[in-house]
Every structure is written in structure tokens, then in C-alpha cells.
Model the fold of this input.
Amino acid sequence: MIPRAIKRLFHQASIGDQSYRFMFERDTTDEVVAIDCETTGLSIRSAEIVSVAAIKIRGNTILTSERFEEVVQPDAGMQADAIRVHRLRLADVAMGHPIRKLLPRFLHFVGGRPLVGYYLDFDIAMLNKYILPFLSIELPNPRIEVSELYYERKYGDAPQNTSIDLAFASILKDLDIPQLDQHDAFNDALMTAMMYVALRDKKRRGSRIPRLRTHTVFDPTGG
Done:
């Protein structure tokens, strides 16, 4: 696998549209962007994006007034099981725009800021499916995975054989963050933003998350 730093340099040299070079500029405003995508499935190869949301965070302030939120019209039809998860019907996505038409506004919104997410690599891989043919590059933004921040605060000093639970709902509960309706791109991005702010504050204060002496089961779906 090519190291991300080397890949970034390659993409910086090979970007197809020079007007998007701002994506490689390091942000100096202490801003990051929490993102989330809802998709028609979990296969990066075959799934399509049906909604995407992004929220700016400046320091410890979540800027809900500065957000990107769009329903996306997929190229193919949606399966019933996907509709049950994100509750977007065919009639709902028919009112959206194709992802290719939304990309310029999304990329200008995000800029070169670090991206924050829960299992962020999946969301970025889904976005890169469309960004790569558009600009001949992948998203170069630094990545901040909230499950890794949470792991460090709760399990970083744990003894061997400790049961690890990184479920979305478990993180919310430990951080005392209200659970909004999940599988809604904006709600998921907002909850992720709240996780990031809380975990960043705990790290700043040197505060750890207590562990209970119970067996837990890792459920990445948050169920």
C-alpha cells in the first residue's frame, strides 16, 4: 500500500483541474469538518451515495449554521433493505442531484481542512469513487477517526484481553451525547462532531473514560 503522504504528493502533481489546488493547502484556522455519507449498501464497488452531510468545527464550536447537506440521486435504483436503513425513498432521492453535480460545492466547502468521521475510510472511499474521475485525484485531506480517539481515551491503557467496544451507540453513551435518529447523514455528522469535541477536550485535560468490568460485544453498526 502506498503511504498516504506519498500519495498526496503524487495527487498534488497530477490534479486534473488546477483551480482545485486549494484542496492541498494546509488549513491554519483550527477548523475541521465532520462528514457522513448514506449509501445504498456497504460494498464500495457497487454501492452509491444517497445523501451526504458536512459540518464545520472551529476549535470546540460546532458550526451547524455552516453545513453542507444534500440528498443525492443515485445512478441505479435502490434496494428495499437500503431504504429501510436510511429511510430515503425513491421519490426522495429523485428530488436530489447526481453526486457529480454536487462535488464542486462539496469540495469548496471542505477545502483542505482535516476530515472527521466514524469509520471515515468508508465514506472517503465512496466519495473518491466520484472525485477520482472528476479531478484525477483522491481526497488529500488529513483524516481524524473518532473511534481511534475514543479507543485511546478508554482502552489506551487497558490490559491484554480487554473486550473492546467501539460501537457508535457505546461512544455516545460514554460521552453523554444524545442519540439522534441514526442513518441520517446530517444527524450522524452532528453526533460525530460532538464526539470529536468531547474527546478532544478529554485529551486536552488528560481525562480518561472509565471501563466497567463487564464483557462487551463489538457491533460496528451501532445496534
In short: The mean pLDDT is 86.
